[in-house]
Automatic annotation (TrEMBL):
<dbReference type="GO" id="GO:0032259">
    <property type="term" value="P:methylation"/>
</dbReference>
<dbReference type="InterPro" id="IPR029063">
    <property type="entry name" value="SAM-dependent_MTases_sf"/>
</dbReference>
<keyword id="KW-1133">Transmembrane helix</keyword>
<feature type="region of interest" description="SAM motif III">
    <location>
        <begin position="194"/>
        <end position="207"/>
    </location>
</feature>
<keyword id="KW-0812">Transmembrane</keyword>
<protein>
    <recommendedName>
        <fullName>MPBQ/MBSQ family SAM-binding methyltransferase profile domain-containing protein</fullName>
    </recommendedName>
</protein>
<feature type="region of interest" description="SAM motif I">
    <location>
        <begin position="108"/>
        <end position="117"/>
    </location>
</feature>
<keyword id="KW-0949">S-adenosyl-L-methionine</keyword>
<dbReference type="Pfam" id="PF08241">
    <property type="entry name" value="Methyltransf_11"/>
</dbReference>
<comment type="similarity">
    <text>Belongs to the class I-like SAM-binding methyltransferase superfamily. MPBQ/MBSQ MT family.</text>
</comment>
<feature type="domain" description="MPBQ/MBSQ family SAM-binding methyltransferase profile">
    <location>
        <begin position="59"/>
        <end position="268"/>
    </location>
</feature>
<keyword id="KW-0489">Methyltransferase</keyword>
<keyword id="KW-0472">Membrane</keyword>
<keyword id="KW-0808">Transferase</keyword>
<dbReference type="InterPro" id="IPR013216">
    <property type="entry name" value="Methyltransf_11"/>
</dbReference>
<feature type="region of interest" description="SAM motif II">
    <location>
        <begin position="153"/>
        <end position="166"/>
    </location>
</feature>
<feature type="transmembrane region" description="Helical">
    <location>
        <begin position="297"/>
        <end position="320"/>
    </location>
</feature>
């Protein structure tokens, strides 16, 4: 069930101007007049999609080195803890519905594919031999290799911000729950555009920013929880057309979004013409080959990891509420 759908046409946003080249400036925007649900009726946008965030967030794990070590450990329990709490099979089927996986011959890349949970949904619609899983974590990919339905997939280690595919390569680009770790999300979406063929579709599933203060604090200490407006702006700036955002969430949240969601929306866009993205960017925000101070690294990693545990507790809290609050009352 999609909570709602928002569609934009290029230059229709009325942003007061912002730069997302790693600088994190978040303009205050009022998009309530653009919000529509699937039946075309106007829907009030909840607070989380219109608020402005402060410019400086720690986001301790939104860096490639931290992400590497984070998944070094998380990969051990990833399939047992993360997916049942935040990214269920129901949600995955719904989200992939927006990717138009309408032929078994489509060439699909799953970026930040990790242990292959989303890829398992993709290969229901597309021949596994046409699917590539890319991830920065060899430990996550090792789990994907163990999965029988993914045996024929191509599995490669790589960076979402610098994809090892030629321009105009794939029919579909899918990325689920990975953008929050990319130091420069605009660059990753520009790459999505570049590697797609003309008429190809990108389908990115990602978190949404919380409005409740405590959740907002832990989210921002951990990693990037973008606003809906940011996703749409990134897609449009990369050159995508027919950009749409649909809300998703675990069933037991009953549509509650104030704590944010790790898998909270599905953003899709179509590449209108062959070639590279019209967007020009400077050098990458993070140079992974640069040495880091191990004390600073450890401090960041521990704080980021602790903040992440809050998001282990939130779905449990919501699940308990769903069990005890009568179904006709809000939770
Ligand atoms: C929450 S997991 C999602 C995995 C999978 N897509 C799923 O649906 O279960 C996020 C994944 O993104 C990967 N990741 C983080 N930063 C990345 C980057 N810059 N390039 C490629 N993969 C990245 C992580 O290694 C991790 O496997």
């Amino acid at each position: 069930m999609a909570f709602s759908s928002i569609t934009r046409t290029p230059n229709a946003l009325g942003f007061s101007g912002s730069s997302f080249n790693g600088k994190n400036q978040f303009p205050k925007v009022d998009l309530s007049h653009f919000a529509r649900n699937l039946s075309g009726k106007k829907t009030p946008i909840p607070k989380c999609s219109v608020q402005t965030r402060p410019t400086s967030q720690p986001r301790f794990i939104q860096h490639k080195k931290e992400a590497f070590w984070f998944y070094r450990f998380l990969s051990i329990v990833y399939d047992n803890i993360i997916n049942p709490a935040h990214w269920t099979e129901d949600m995955r089927e719904e989200a992939l519905g927006y990717a138009d996986l309408n032929s078994r011959d489509l060439m699909v890349i799953d970026v930040g594919g990790g242990t292959g949970f989303t890829t398992l949904g993709i290969v229901k619609h597309v021949d596994a031999k046409n699917v590539t899983i890319l991830d920065q974590s060899p430990h996550q990919l090792a789990k994907a290799r163990e999965k029988e339905p993914l045996k024929e997939c191509r599995i490669i280690q790589g960076d979402a911000e610098d994809l090892p595919f030629p321009t105009d390569y794939a029919d579909r680009y899918v990325s689920a729950g990975s953008i929050e770790y990319w130091p420069d999300p605009q660059r990753g979406i520009k790459e999505a555009y570049r590697v797609l063929k003309e008429g190809g579709k990108a389908c990115l599933i990602g978190p949404v920013h919380p409005t409740f203060w405590l959740s907002s604090f832990f989210a921002d200490v951990w990693m990037l929880f973008p606003t809906e407006e940011e996703y749409i702006e990134w897609f449009q700036k990369a050159g995508f057309r027919d950009v749409q955002l649909n809300r998703i969430g675990p069933k037991w949240y009953r549509g509650v979004r104030r704590h944010g969601l790790i898998m909270g929306c599905v953003v899709t866009g179509v590449k209108p013409a062959s070639g590279d993205s019209p967007l020009q960017l400077g050098p990458k925000a993070e140079d992974v080959s640069k040495p880091v101070n191990p004390v600073v690294f450890l401090y960041r990693f521990i704080l980021g990891g602790l903040a992440a545990t809050y998001y282990v507790l939130v779905p449990i809290y919501m699940w308990i509420k769903d069990q005890i609050v009568p179904k006709d009352q809000p939770i």
